[in-house]
């Protein structure tokens, strides 16, 4: 879930990043990169669900963050040097990283008990909440169309979590907590984008997540994955890192406001993979709710892009 006006991702609070300097206008290539990025995130969601159903959530997240950190250092430290570590507002950068750690934890528990598609749809509350909270906190204005889009998005979520939907209440609670953590995370992302680099923020989220979940391992249930699941744990970290890298690459090809609507394909990937891997098929009202979330989010993002053209 990312900010509707920046580039937005979701799920466990993936970093909203400013477009880098030197953006060229190759929209088709940029859109293709975003589609690949959200596919990587959806594959990561499926792996998270599979692994958290078998192992302690802290173990799964420790593996995911450590792999993420190792890959960031291995591939980006030679080029960025100390720029990978250097921050201007270190306290807020660390708070933002803590919000992502909380988001990852709540996402892990939500996916343990919930279908992938419904979980991803609920966490897409965050972009709408960011839009509303940006009014008092960041002094931004929201148009009538923005309010209508937010109402439509919230209505979609209510259809998904309605009584009788068959969703586990505890899983819904964790998904809603995730949306709350992601909202704070994205508000901080928008604030820090003015002073700190994307790569430094990515590095610190990986570092803080690694430290938090490694520290939690002594309280896990002690079960360790065998080789096949260890390979899946490695793949989870790779997909998370790849998704962020592809988003960053996409910003070099086209403006973020043009790419933002493509984030909602994440929901389609999640629904398809959830059906393919776990046999989960949302009921008709849940599908209608997901459609409302997708349409409302894409409409707001497209309107934002047209206003910037």
From TrEMBL:
Keywords: Membrane, Transmembrane, Transmembrane helix. GO terms for cellular component: membrane. It holds the Pfam family EamA. Signal peptide: none annotated. InterPro entries: EamA_dom, EmrE-like. The chain crosses the membrane at residues 30-47, 59-78, 90-113, 119-137, 144-161, 167-188, 200-219, 231-251, 258-278, 284-302. It comes from Rubellimicrobium roseum. This is DMT family transporter.
């Amino acid at each position: 879930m990312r900010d509707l006006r920046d580039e937005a991702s979701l799920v466990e609070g993936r970093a909203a990043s400013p477009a880098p300097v030197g953006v060229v206008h190759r929209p088709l290539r940029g859109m293709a990169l975003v589609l690949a990025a959200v596919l990587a995130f959806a594959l990561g969601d499926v792996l998270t669900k599979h692994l958290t159903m078998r192992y302690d959530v802290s173990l799964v997240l420790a593996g995911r963050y450590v792999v993420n950190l190792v890959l960031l250092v291995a591939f980006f430290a030679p080029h960025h040097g100390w720029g990978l570590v250097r921050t201007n507002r270190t306290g807020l950068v660390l708070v933002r990283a803590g919000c992502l750690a909380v988001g990852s934890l709540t996402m892990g528990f939500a996916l343990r008990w919930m279908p992938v598609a419904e979980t991803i749809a609920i966490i897409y509350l965050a972009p709408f909440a960011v839009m509303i909270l940006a009014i008092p906190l960041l002094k931004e204005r929201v148009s009538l169309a923005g309010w209508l889009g937010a109402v439509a998005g919230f209505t979609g979520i209510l259809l998904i979590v309605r009584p009788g939907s068959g969703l586990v209440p505890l899983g819904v609670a964790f998904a809603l907590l995730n949306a709350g953590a992601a909202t704070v995370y994205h508000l901080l992302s928008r604030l820090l984008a003015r002073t700190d680099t994307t790569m430094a923020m990515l590095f610190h989220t990986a570092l803080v997540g690694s430290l938090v979940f490694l520290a939690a391992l002594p309280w896990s249930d002690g079960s360790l994955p065998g080789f096949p699941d260890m390979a899946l744990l490695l793949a989870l970290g790779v997909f998370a890192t790849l998704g962020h890298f592809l988003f960053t690459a996409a910003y070099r090809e086209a403006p973020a406001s043009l790419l933002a609507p493509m984030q909602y394909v994440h929901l389609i990937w999640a629904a398809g993979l959830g059906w393919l891997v776990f046999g989960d098929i949302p009921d008709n009202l849940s599908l209608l709710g997901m459609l409302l979330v997708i349409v409302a989010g894409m409409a707001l993002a497209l309107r934002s892009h047209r206003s910037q053209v």
